[in-house]
C-alpha cells in the first residue's frame, strides 16, 4: 500500500537535511587550505581505490611515520572515499613505507642514493609478486614528505599505476619568519592576529597548531621563527621558553624546528648586564647559558634569527664591532647544541648618505669569509625592501666564502595586503632564476651552495599567516605560502606548474577549473607591478602602513623613507640614476651584469627607472616615449585586474559559493584600488612632468589634492 504522501515528504525532507548536514559542518571557509582532500571524480577514485588499500609502516615506526600514515588515511578517505587499513602483511594495493637498509627496497627497484635525509621516492613496484606503491626514504621525515607527495599527486587527479618519482630538497633550512609580537599583533600581517596564544600557552595547546604543522610539512617547510625580527628580549625568559617549548612539541612530529628572533641587547634587558658587547666575556657567557637553558627544554631548537643595527634595533655596531663579531658570538653559544644563527643583512642607515640600495653590500661584502660555520647571512631578494619588482640583491654571488640565505616576503606588505591577488610564485621564480654573473651562477645556485660542499643553505619567507579562518587573509594568498614552500624545496619548479598544483588541490582538479585559476595567478603579480610601480619604480607606497599610493611624500625625517627619494621625478624626467654617472650601485654587481644594468639601452624596461634617470621623451624598447609608456602600464594594470575578474567568473561551477563570493568581492576591491593607484600616480606624475596625457588616456577621477588628502590611520599590519 502506498504510504501517505505526507510521510514521504517528511522522509524526503529528513533525507535532504542529513545530506546537507556534513556540507554545513565543513563549510568552505578556506581553513583546509590545499589539504582539502575533496572527493575525486568517481572514475578516478575507482581506479585508485584497489591500488591503495592498505598501509604498511616501516619496522619500529616512530612518531613521524605515524603522522605520515595518519595523513594518508585522512587524504585517501577524503579523495577516494575509503581510508587504507594498517597492515603488517603485504597485500595487493599496499602503500609500503621503506626506510634505508630495508632489503625490499632493492626488490622494488628503489635507489635511495642522493636523496639526503629528507628526499623520497614514490614508485609503483612489485614486492614478492605483490603489486604495491613504495614510499622510500632514508628517514621517517622523508617518508612524511613522500606521503604528502603521493597525496599531492592524487589531488591533481593523476593516475597511480605508473608512479616513478624522486624528489629531494637542495636547501637545508626552509623556514618561515613570523613577524609576530608577544601581544599578538603581527607586523605586516593581514590575516588577523598571531597564531601563537602566548597568554594561554603552555597550558592550552591549540589543535590548530597541528594543522599549521601539517600544512607546512606538506610543502616541505622544516623550520619556523616564532617571533618578530623587531624582537622583544622577553621571549628568552624562562616563562616564555616554556611556551615556546610547548609549540616545539606540537611541531616536532612534522619535522618542523622552532627558532627565535633574538634581541641583541637581551643581556642588558633581561640578563642584568651593563653591556651587550660581543667581545665582553660576560656577554658571551650569558648567551651560552641562555642557549643551554633553551636546549635543556627544546633539544632540537633550531637557533636564532637576528636583525641587528637596522631600523633602530641594537647590534654589535653599538660597541664598534662588526656584524661578524656579533653573529659569531651568538654562533659560539649555539654551536655545542647544533644550532644556527641566521644573521640578517637588511641594514641601512640615515647617517649614511650613500644610495640605500648600496648600503647592505658595502657593510657585508667585506666580511666575506669572516663568519663561523653555523652562521648564515640572510639577504632579502632585492637591495631595498620587498618591492613589487626589484633587481636581485648584489650580495648574491659576491660572498663566495659565506653561506647566504635568501629572504622572501610572503606577506604582501607592498603588493596590496590580503585583498589584492598577487601570486608571488612568479616573483620568487624571477629572483631564483636570475644569473648573478658570478661564477656561482643563478641566485638559486648561490642559495643552494652549489659546489660548496655541505655548507649551510637556506631560504626564509616572511609568513602571511594569522588566526583568520583561512590562515592567509584570502584564498589566493594561500597560493603564496604554498609556492614559497614548493620553491624552497625545489627552486627549479616552474611557477606555473606550482600554480596548477595549487589550483587543483584548492579548488578542483578539473582542467576547466585549473586553467582560469592558473591564468589569474600567472598574470596577477605583473598586474600589481603595472598599477603600482611600473618600469622599475619602487617604494611609492604611503607612509608607515604602506597601504595605497604616496608618490608625492617627500617630508619624512629620513631621506630614504620618502617616495620622492626613489623616483626623483621632476619636469625633465624620472628615475634613480644608479649608473656610473649616479650612485654607481651597478658597480656592486658582477661586471657583465653591471654593464647591462649600467646602460639604459641594455637595461630591461621593467627595471629601467631603478637604474636610470631618464627624460620623459626617452624611447622605451617598445618605441613609445617613457611618458606614454608609463601611463600605458598603469592602464594595463587596471585592465589586467578586469581580466582576472572575468576569468574568475568562469570558475563559478567549480568553486564553492563561499570562497567564490569572497574572492569576487576581493577582486572588486582590487579593481577599485588598482584604479586608485593608477589615477593617483598619473595625477601626481602629471603635476610634475606637466605633460598632457597621451591620446586616449582617461584623466584621473579626482584631482591630486583628493588623493593626497586620504589617510588610513587604522590600516592593518603596522610596525611599532
Ligand atoms: C620592512 C618592514 C618592517 C620590517 C623590516 C625588516 O616595513 O616592518 O621590520 O622590513 O625586514 O619591509 O626588518
From TrEMBL:
Gene Ontology molecular functions: alpha-glucuronidase activity
Signal peptide start-end: 1-27
Domain Glycosyl hydrolase family 67 C-terminal: 473-695
Keyword tags: Carbohydrate metabolism, Glycosidase, Hydrolase, Polysaccharide degradation, Signal, Xylan degradation
Pfam families in UniProt: Glyco_hydro_67C, Glyco_hydro_67M, Glyco_hydro_67N
E.C. designation(s): 3.2.1.131
Domain Alpha glucuronidase N-terminal: 33-149
Domain Glycosyl hydrolase family 67 catalytic: 155-471
InterPro entries tied to this protein: A-glucoronidase_C_sf, GH, Glyco_hydro_67_aGlcAse, Glyco_hydro_67_aGlcAse_N, Glyco_hydro_67_C, Glyco_hydro_67_cat, Hex-like_dom2
Enzyme class, UniProt record, top EC level: hydrolase
Reaction catalysis annotation: Hydrolysis of (1->2)-alpha-D-(4-O-methyl)glucuronosyl links in the main chain of hardwood xylans
Domain of life: Bacteria
Subunit structure: Homodimer.
Assigned protein family: Belongs to the glycosyl hydrolase 67 family.
Cited PANTHER family: ALPHA-GLUCURONIDASE A
Protein name, as recorded: Xylan alpha-1,2-glucuronidase
Species in which this protein is naturally found: Sphingomonas jejuensis
